[in-house]
Amino acid sequence: MVTFFGFLCVIAKKEGPLAIHLTMHAKPRRRTVTENGDGGEDLVLATSVGNGEDLGPIVRHAFEMGRPEALLHQLKNVAKKKEVEIEELCKLHYEEFITAVDQLRGVLVDAEELKSELSSDNFRLQEVGSSLLLKLEELLESFSVKKNITGAIQMSKICVEVLVLCVKCNQHISEGRFYPALKTLDLIERNYLHNVPIKALQKVIEKRIPVIRSHIEKKVCSDFNEWLVQIRITAGNIGQTAIGQATSARQKDEEMRARQREAEEHSRSGLGDFVYSLDVDEIDEDSVLKFDLTPVYRAYHIHTYLGIQDQFCEYYFKNRLLQLNSDFEISSIQPFSKSPQTFVAQIAGYFIVEDRVLRTAVGLLSANQFETIWETAVAKMTSVLEEQFSHMDSASASDLLLIKDNVTLLGATLRRYGYEVGPLLEVLDKSRDKYHEILLEECRQQMVNVLANDTYEQMVIKTEEEYNMNVFSYHLQTSDIMPAFPYIVPFSSTVPNACRIVKSFIKDSVGFLSYGSHINFFDIVKKFLDKLLIEVLNEALLKVIHSYTTVVSQAMQIAANITVLERACDFFLRQAAQHCGIPVRSFERLHAGLTAKAVLKTSKDEAYHALLNLVNSKVDEFMALTGNINWTMEEIPEDENDYINEVVLYLDTLLSTAQQILPLDALHNVGSGALEHISNSIVGALLSDSVKRFNMNAVMGIDNDLKMLESFADERFHSTGLNEIHKEGSLRDCLIEARQMIDLLLSSQPENFMNPVIREKHYNTLDYKKVASICEKFKDAPDRLFGSLSSRNTKQNARKKSMDMLKRRLRDFN
Q1: Which CATH number is 629-781+797-813 given?
Q2: Does the pLDDT value for residue 803 go beyond 60?
Q3: Burial degree of 394 (CB within 10 A; 0-12, 13-18, 19+)
Q4: How far is it, in rounded angstroms, from Cα 524 to Cα 469?
Q5: Rounded (10°) angle between helices 340-360 and 397-415
Q6: Which residue among 12, 126, 203, 698 has the highest number of C-beta atoms inside a 10 angstrom radius?
């Protein structure tokens, strides 16, 4: 309305009232007259203007075509045409326009009144609105403050939440709870950091997050490094505890075997029935072996959370491998053979810890890394053991046994955790021969000391305890009946002492071979037992036997000792079988005896031979007194020669002692050997160059000597009980050569010696040459002054002739 009103005012000023009237009432119409010959273009332009279209394209086209003047001309033409149309319109609606102008004047009056009212209303409105505007401005300012405060509160809440999380993170770190601290850092970084409205605070937090993560990583690494130091210190205690458990298990096993052997012994002797029970102790190693792996778990978990798990795994592997290599370094301060417990305890503790880590910290150690650690340990330990064994020339068997026990206990301990310990036990098998060489050498020295300190007198057992300790415990008794005390045994202290050495050797040998790679090692024990008995015991006995200082009593006691030791070989073998866990019945059925038993039997024969040599040497001392015999005595002797009393007294002492010590067979051998040697000595005396000649009286004296010896031999043969085991002969038969020689010299017809039948019957032990030599020295009658002129007995003449005949025939025979 206002715009249209303004338009009318403009028209009225320019054209007057008539023009306004025409404008309001005239209807536009198209003119058909063209001017200046350019009607077509003017029509187009007029149509566009009339339709209100945009003339921009037309103007742009005119300038592009370089004809702006033509366009301007056309616009002027269009304006002229419009003016003509307005004039025509005004003329057509003149009256209506006048009326409209009048009405418009009234409207103008009303408009002025309205304007005045509006002005007054506006003034009042301005008065009222000013206070309201002030209130509005205050309200808008309040809204702005509220908005700012709300934003500030929201920002403060975000900052407070972030700061609370930061405080919580710091608290976790101070309390050592690193995983919650890292979770808090991730929460801040993921959900809050990009929303922090304060850029300074945001930058500070951004800078501190990696620093805190680095601090946590360093802290857990520091704790882990402290754990590495601590666990190496405590590994020895862990290993000792675990090895103590293995030791207890082994002791229970040995006690069970001992009870089994005892039961077998009682069952074998038929003493009664036994009830067996199985005791099973289940031990939770993890509950007994307590050690803290928290630093490992924490470090591994933290590194895993930080995404550097592989870095920590490699760090753990390298450091533990370095510790393992360090554990295998043997201290030069204390010999390894004196303290292997510390070494094996450290290794056992190390692998117990690694087993716990492998089972509980899944992924920390790979299977390949674990295999590498174990293979390194096996190679190192094998090398250490081989090197130590190679430098143990001065070590004792107990040192090697101590090493073996500790290594097998280490193997038993680690086997319970699933480790393959076969290579360690194979190293012990390689040292088996060296150990037994050292053990045999120690036993040899002990045996030499035992033999050197023995008095070679029969032991006198005074109490039952002494009897059980020295006799019964080695099955040396000849009867199951307990003897009366004091009781004299047929052996000296060498026997029980040697049995103790052998029994200890069996125990040590079995102890070294037990719990190794061989399950059935009885044949190995048997081999070394044979070696002990043959190369140590037997050789030591032979040295004593062949010693120049050995006397008859010693030789006799040694022979008796060997007899007992020979019988004890079966006990030794049975002991070895029992210690090896072989049942007695199957052992007796399947296993052959010891070779040493036959060797000792041979040595026993050699001892008897040495004894006889000593006896014969002593007899020779007495028989040397035959040099005091008057071989050409004039009177017929009524008694024996003096030397024979010494001989018989010695034989009486000898056989009495032998009867107490030696078995009957040995007693017979000693007695028969001595008597046979006396017989040979008598014949030898007759053959001696010192005896140039002898007569009948001397022969009769020798005959008296032989009768005394024969009487002694017969008495001893029956009193000692030899007649019960030697029913076809007697001790008298040992004097047969001397007896036959004396009988030949006393015979009235000595020439019958040349008769084969008579010689076989009465002189079968005599040698032609000896008979010839002795007969050449024999003079039938004693020499007297003018003896050739004295009367002679007819009988003596006949004997002399017969003797002369024998001499001639023997000379012819020779």
Answers
A1: 1.10.357
A2: yes
A3: exposed
A4: 28
A5: 10
A6: 698
Domain 436-609 matching CATH 1.10.357.30: the answer reads yes
Q: 461 forms bridges with which residues in the sheet?
A: 487
pLDDT digits (tens, 9 = 90+) for 539-552: 999 998 888 677 88
Phi/psi at 393 (5° precision): -65, -30
Measured between alpha carbons, how far is 738 from 685 in angstroms, rounded to an integer?
10
* pTM (two decimals): 0.67
- Which carries the bigger pLDDT value, residue 734 or residue 794? 734
Q: How far apart are CA 683 and CA 740, in angstroms?
A: 10
| 790, amino acid identity | S
Spell out the residues 6+ positions from residue 81 whose beta carbon is closer than 8 angstroms to its own.
31, 42, 46
Give the span between the Cα atoms of 644 and 648, in whole angstroms: 6
Query: Which tokens is 243 given?
Result: 């090895």
SS (H, E, C) 103-140: HHHHHHHHHHHHHHHHHHHHHHHHHHHHHHHHHHHHHH
Lowest mean pLDDT among 62-71, 163-172, 309-318: 62-71
Read off the tokens for 99.
């009326």
For the chain, give percent helix, strand, coil, nearest 5.
Answer: 75, 0, 20
**Residue 488: what are its φ and ψ, rounded to 5°?**
-100, 120
| Cα–Cα distance for residue pair 613/617, rounded to 1 Å | 6
Q: Which residues pair with 778 in a beta bridge?
A: 694
SS3 151: helix
Mean pLDDT rounded to a whole number for the chain: 82
What beta strand segments (E) does 132-211 contain? Answer: none
Helix (H) or strand (E) holding 778: strand 778-779
Nearest Cα neighbor of 494 from 439, 552, 557 is 557
Q: Do 196 and 205 touch, CB atoms closer than 8 A?
A: yes
Nearest alpha-carbon partner for 314 in 386, 361, 365, 362? 365
SS3 call for 694:
strand
Mapped onto helix, strand or coil, the DSSP state of residue 461 is strand
- pLDDT band of 292, cuts 50, 70, 90: confident
Has residue 783 got a pLDDT over 50? no
End-to-end CA distance of the chain: 197
Measured at the CA of 604, the angle between CA 599 and CA 610, to 5 degrees, comes to 130
Sort 758 into a burial class: Cβ within 10 Å, 0-12 / 13-18 / 19+: middle
Confidence at residue 15, expressed as pLDDT on a 0 to 100 scale? 43
